[in-house]
Amino acid sequence: MELVYLWVEKYKNIEKQGFNFSPQFECKYEDGKLTICDKKKKECKDNDYIENFFGDNINVTAIVGKNGSGKSNLLDLLFYPKMVNTDNKKDYFFIYVKHKTQLYAVNCTLNKKKLIRLDKADKSFKDEEINNKIKSIYFNNFYKKLPTNYHHLNFLSQNGEDKYDISLLGKLKKNESENIYVKLETQISSYYLNNIKNSILLLKNNILKLPKDFSKPESIFLNYIYIDKNFEEFNIFTIKEDDLGEHLIRVCLYLFYKYGFSPDNNSSYEKKKEEYEIEKFQKESKNYKDIFDSLKKYMSKNLKNTTPKFFGGDISDVINFFNDISILFDMFKNDKYSFEEFPDNFIETYLRIIKETQEFINFDWHPSLSTGEETLLFQFANFYSVLKEDKSSFFIFIDEGENTLHPNWQKKYISYIVQFFRDNFPKIEFHIILTSHSPFLLSDIPRENIIFLKDGKNDKGINHKQTFGANIHTLLSDSFFMEDGLMGEFAKNKIKEIVKQLNDHKEQKEPLTEAEQQDIKKVIQAIGEPFLNQKLWNMYQSLFNDTDAEKRRLNEEMDRIKKKLEGLN
Predict the structure, then answer these.
(1) What is the pLDDT of residues 72-114, one digit of tens each?
(2) pTM for the complete prediction?
(3) What is the DSSP string of 385-443?
(4) Which among 338, 366, 394 is the end of a domain?
């Protein structure tokens, strides 16, 4: 299934606009009439298009424009159509194509107007019917505001829904709905650790192909995070550095005494030790595991009528906490694991423990990954977590997926994403729809596959230069609507100030002191754009005739020309 066309009657800053998403078709909606032509059948004025440009099962569409142009609004409408339609009026409609031949119209009432019948379609679908046929994934890795009535819907394939929100905020909202009283720090930890878990599942799959030049890790290291200064005093027994299990129990016991229930939840750490009779358990035990087991039995037997102050309000929650520690103890045998050896439920168990306490284990890749490599690995892993057992068509909505990546990774982003979907899921049809501020991404996408947004309006592609293989300067100035040039605002203002000072000196409005002249000369020498540097230097020389500086500039110019000549020989 591929999206062909979207008409928006009215949504936020987008009004009476049509958007073509498929290079094969041209659609136009005017005065209540929809016309569609198929380039493959030579029905359009210009029938030039490249079939299967990104692969047999993939189409890619980019949405670009300035901040506030409506890019995210358009993605919201595509992924959350039921959410954004707050007044129950159908202010938009979609045209889809299945297997590149059969067209379908969806949401076609447009403020209760008649249904639009398509000549090429034998029937129209209602929302509920078409939603069962269209699956979609939404991803971003930054914090953004969701539609007002989002209600943290838990789109993760529950209650028959086929929308998967794997964005940062979507997952935080899911955590919030499941764990209402969990602090934000723990929710963020949960988001990161679930990324680790999904990445391990992906790396366990030896058949799965990652992009050829992507450096994937071979194993994962587990090490302890610093707890606090009181933890160092909680060292009843001498622990060998390599006794990971004992150290784990020591950590968890300390966290229990720090966060666990007590008659006075604000009581000091020392007082809590007395309340839990730690000295008694210490005398009867040879190691932390013995203390742990004795304390667990003691609570089960003697504290049934106690109301905990922290662990959920029921003694069973505390017992479950101790059970999870036992499970973790049995699994935690090494500090380094290959992905095949890594215990299946380790991270889920660890997450249940830190929900009531704090993080105490750090997970490190080996060989180590840069932030950009880990960001890409997490993206692959989250997509894989949804797609690994599915064979349906999917829409992939990516809101600035290259965000936080170094330009070198941005150059590879489209290639990596296309390779990942094409090579690992050849039987699934994908339509990837993404927003971006990166010219590197656009240089991998033909103009016909780009929607140019300007102030909520579709600035037709024919008004823009070709993007595929284009240079970065052309893309920045043309595709991203940077009409006022590519120079930084600070530099532009600094240069304007210098020009004004030189003109004021020339007209004797405000003569420059010797120190001011030297400052201006230094700024001109720092300007990297050759033409602008030369023009400003000419202005300066016409006023001050600095022969020493001119000689130095000419010598530098001669050296530059000599090097250029040597390169030609």
Answers:
(1) 888 888 887 765 554 545 567 788 776 666 676 776 544 444 4
(2) 0.81
(3) HHHTT--S-EEEEEESTTTT--HHHHHHHHHHHHHHHHHH-TTS-EEEEEE---HHHHT
(4) 366
